[in-house]
Amino acid sequence: MGYLINRYMIKIAAQFALGINNPEDYGDVSELTPGELVNWVVQEHKARRAGRHYDVRFGKDKLFSFATKKEFPEPGKQIALYPQPLHEGSYAKFEGKIKSGYGAGEVKTRDKGEILVTKASPRRIQFVLAHKGEPEAFNLTKIDKGDDKPFWLMRNITPTEPVEYKKTHYKKIPAGKIDKLMDPDYVMSAKIDGAAGFARLMKDHVDVLSYRTASTGKPIVHTFRMGLLDKLNIPKHLQGKVFRGEIYGVRGDTEEAIPPQELGGLLNSSVSKSLRRQRDRNIKLRMALFGVVGDKSDFAKQEYEKRREAIREALKYLPKQFTEPPYAVTKAEKRSLWNAIKNRTLPLTHEGVVGFPVSGGVPVKVKLLQEHDVYIRKMFEGTGKYSGAGVGGFEYSLTPKGPIVGRVGTGFSDELRRDMYEESDKYIGRIAKVRAQGVFPSGALRTPALIAVHEDYSTKHAYLIDRNIEKQAGFWDWPGLRWIKKKWNKHKEKERISDVKNTVGAQARGRKTIRFKYTNQKGESRTREVEPYEIKGGYLWGADVDRNRSIRRYKLSGITNPTPTKNKYEPKWEVKIN
Questions:
Q1: What's the pLDDT score for residue 446?
Q2: Whole-structure pTM over 0.85, yes or no?
Q3: Angle formed by the axes of helices 414-422 and 260-268, to 10°?
Q4: Average pLDDT over residues 400-423
Q5: What is the set of domains in the chain, with CATH numbers?
Q6: Which residues partner with 434 through β-bridges?
Q7: Residue 350 backbone class (left: φ over 0; alpha: ψ -120 to 50; beta: rest)
Q8: Which residue, 42, 101, 482, 496, has most beta carbons within 10 Å?
């Protein structure tokens, strides 16, 4: 790309270039304001002179522009970007052929959305791809080599390491036995009905991560949904410390917590959607810290005073979005806290309380309403205004792979119905929290209503919970059953690959591309969009849209989440899939 950055050539040629007004104006990225959402587009440019490359552009009325022949870097990696003159904002919509002059060739949009600017100075900008379901963060730094040919280094700074922790098991007791927690051996805390998460302290910022991990195994990052952009000054002895907490939202200045279902909508949507919804609804996301992770031990075994001392020290250096849940130590304080929750006069929660043993041990949950955890197995179609636009609800089982025993069709917000309809894969296998009037002998719940989808458990965790039950029972330890389980797993994998083939075949017949997640032999996982041509020898052969339509092969066993697209293609070779 170095030969492209001849500024004199650009100056002469760009006078006739589409989208460029002043060939000498490269703009100043420090004009962007941290916290604002601006337009973003990546255009694949098959230029006659420069060859195939990507144009990266972002901004508002004017687009800061850069060129590269490289694919975007994975987390921890970096590539060079070469600056181009500012382009008109309208150029972000351009697709088609530039017939002559500077940049002559074909332009096609590869990615379009918004970025959230997190830092901006004349020589450095940090931003997040805010339109992505799993946002990635990048750092762009200007490098001068003294030869009038500066370039920018683009580094992917997305967190990749999930927090390793030991799941805490709580003892549950009915509300009628609340007097047990009035004992001085317990400290009482309000049970905030939010989403469990981690706060990982870094040198100059804090990462807020979900308990769950993404389908790629990487952490789900909520930092930017919480608007945490300010530079922090974390003392060296606290850097790397991880705290447990509950993410929740409050509306306006009332301190009233938003319902868990609404919170789930904010945490499961893209950063840009989440921030706009928070602004429109006057919601602020917060996090109440209640535990320390550090040494991978169960935080409940830590003494109460030592745990709170560590949290209070951390809170001195954290933004105002971080706090502690309300605590009660004396019997009078506990009675007052319990009555406030029971009488619904505590705006932060109406759910219940948690009792922590003062000297460490198993914490105790007391909830005012009986709840049940069920596993989401399958969506069913909506009717009326939800027909073709939202789900009617979901079918559930009592274990991750057990028989489906019932349906839940009430308690959903319109927003959640739409999201479940559009991205059902994001919910299948997850644990939902529901209320019910009773339980039938079959295990099905009587008139169940959804409270929220658990933000604490991924599908992986749900499966492990089920496997732990099996292991405790010694169910699969019998030699005969081990053999049956092995055969059953083989059968299920065969069925899954057959489904992949059917989906690919339907797309090939319609000459439409297929998008899927592909995991190679090294365990690396990436999303691919492919023009399917042939299935042979356990492999799908096709043209990779993101790799200049070069022919690649993908092992069928490594393909997951095959998703049909509406993108048509003109075959370069014979399509041999019937």
A1: 85
A2: no
A3: 40
A4: 89
A5: 2-156 (no CATH), 171-367 (3.30.470.30), 372-474 (2.40.50.140), 480-568 (2.30.30.100)
A6: 372, 450
A7: alpha
A8: 42
